[in-house]
Amino acid sequence: MQASLDRHSPFPSSAPSRADAKAMDASDPMGRARDHFLLPAGLVYLDGNSLGPLPRLAPNRIFQAMRQEWGEDLIAGWTKHGWMQLPMTVGDKIGKLIGAPEGTVAACDTTSINLYKVLAAALAERPKRRTVLSDRGNFPTDLYIADGLFKQLGQGHRLKLVDSVGELVEAIDDDTAAVMLTQVDYRTGELHDMEAVTRAAHAKGALTVWDLAHSAGALPVDLAGCDADYAIGCGYKYLNGGPGAPAFLYIAKRLQATYSQPLQGWLGHAEPFKFETEFRPAAGLQRAIVSSPSILSLLTLECGVDAMLRWKMDDIRAKSEALTEIFRILVDSVGENLGLARVSPREFEKRGSQLCYSHPHGYAIVQALIERRVVGDFRAPDILRFGFAPLYLRYVDVWDAAANLADVIETRAYEDPKFAVRAAIT
Ligand SMILES: *Cc1c(COP(=O)(O)O)cnc(C)c1O
Q1: Which of 15, 80, 176, 215 could form a disulfide with 11 if both were Cys (CB 3.0 to 4.6 A apart)?
Q2: Helices (H), 69-139
Q3: What's the order of all strands across the beta sheet hosting 354-358?
Q4: Beta carbons of 114 and 107 less than 8 angstroms apart
Q5: d(CA 388, CA 44)
């Protein structure tokens, strides 16, 4: 089955046509950005928010790093090729995408591990406070990591979960050590106001820990401008760093001198090659590094970030708006008849770069779409999730995705029993 449904449009004549979408591609100033990625022909990839595609330059870069830098230079590579500094080099590049000045972002570890580190540091900054506030719909790893950290500390810390950000702001009080929030909700796509929440937290003496998993590379973020305290984020989603890519962490300059590292590895030491018995933290951000950086993975991530740095974040956001609005208008025009309920906010300003719908047969619908080479994902219990990465998506891809979604439901193609078999990874 082809992704293109050229002859038959399931949408009302007032909705944008496939020809309109093609015309938008023809005049799209960001159209060439797609050339920086290797995507299978005929695939409409709406899952870059889960695993971004392969940056075109990455295979050769890794081949060169292996054959020449590692293969020829061996141990000398650490100095000769700047491997030891690579977490900071790549971190500074990521910083440009998220409003973070040089020396405040390190690319290292995983999102979950970085959360563990900065949350522990936040609690150490507020030793008399015992509450961490978050939202019940937060990504589970964030909640699990916090809970595990509290158990380990054994000092009576607790998570207080609320159902909305309005409620969260109300709940901040003098026992709140930190507000821990994912800026763009992974399930609904709702975009939270970083500046307002940070201001509310600071007004009560609390710190903020922002998870940028669905923000970094998807929309302009201004960590310094919002006076955020700590942030973490993911390398393999919109930053296209590859499966299991290193993640990143941000520590505001003003908090670096007192940052206490819970995982005291030798590379966070002031002078690792003195091999001292006692841990002395390095100055600045280096103290947040635990151990030897994953060089090949960092170089892959760097290719993804470099591909993104060619474009302005504001232009990326503008295209994200245009792409998601077409999809929303098309799907909204038929959604009610098809039993699809939009879960993401209607207004673009309130969303990240994704759109989600609920449907009782969500899982099977997503599988049927994948068979037609339209790749989104499913999030339990009943959410169909579509991510729109502006660097490589075309308007016509979005049109085809919406048309196939409508067609799969209208024709009940998803009822084929093969689409009901649950995979371990959705
Ligand atoms: C994807 C994601 C993570 C991923 O955590 P890993 O440690 O990389 O597995 C964490 N938080 C949020 C909100 C996510 O969306």
Answers
A1: 15
A2: 71-73, 77-80, 86-97, 111-125
A3: 341-342, 354-358, 383-387, 377-379
A4: no
A5: 10
For the chain, the distance separating the N- and C-terminal CA atoms, rounded to the nearest angstrom, is: 22
Q: Which CATH architecture has domain 82-309?
A: 3-Layer(aba) Sandwich (3.40)
Question: 215, 233 in Cβ contact below 8 A?
Answer: yes
pLDDT digits (tens, 9 = 90+) for 286-344: 999 999 999 999 999 999 999 999 999 999 999 999 999 999 999 999 988 999 999 99
CATH of 3-54+312-420, one of 3.40.50.1000, 3.40.50.300, 3.40.630.30, 3.90.1150.10: 3.90.1150.10
Does residue 183 line the site of ligand 1, with CB under 6 A?
A: no
Best residue among 186, 234, 239, 353 to mutate for probing ligand 1's pocket (most ligand atoms within 8 Å of CB) is: 234
The tally of CA atoms less than 13 A away on the side-chain side of residue 317 is 16
Buried b or exposed e, range 73-106, using 16+ CB within 10 angstroms: eeeebbeebebbebbbebbbbbbebbbbeebbbb
CA distance 129 to 367: 46
Give Cβ neighbours of residue 7 (< 8 Å, ≥ 6 apart): none
Q: Which of 44, 98, 335 is nearest to 216 (CA)?
A: 98
Q: How many residues does the chain have?
A: 426
Collapsing DSSP states into helix, strand and coil, what is residue 138? coil
Distance 141 CA to ligand 1 centre (A): 7
pLDDT band at 424 (very low <50, low <70, confident <90, very high): confident
- Classified as helix, coil or strand, 396 is helix
Is residue 234 lining ligand 1, measured as CB closer than 6 Å? yes
Q: pTM higher than 0.70, yes or no?
A: yes
Residue 173 a catalytic site member: no
C-beta atoms surrounding 273 within 10 Å: 7
Distance CA 208, CA 199 (A): 9
Arithmetic mean of pLDDT, 348-376: 97
**385 among known catalytic residues:** yes
**Both tokens assigned to 201:** 């937290």
Encoded tokens for 303: 């290719």
> Is the link from the previous residue into 381 a cis peptide, with omega within 30 of 0?
yes
Angle, alpha carbons 269-275-280 (nearest 5°): 30
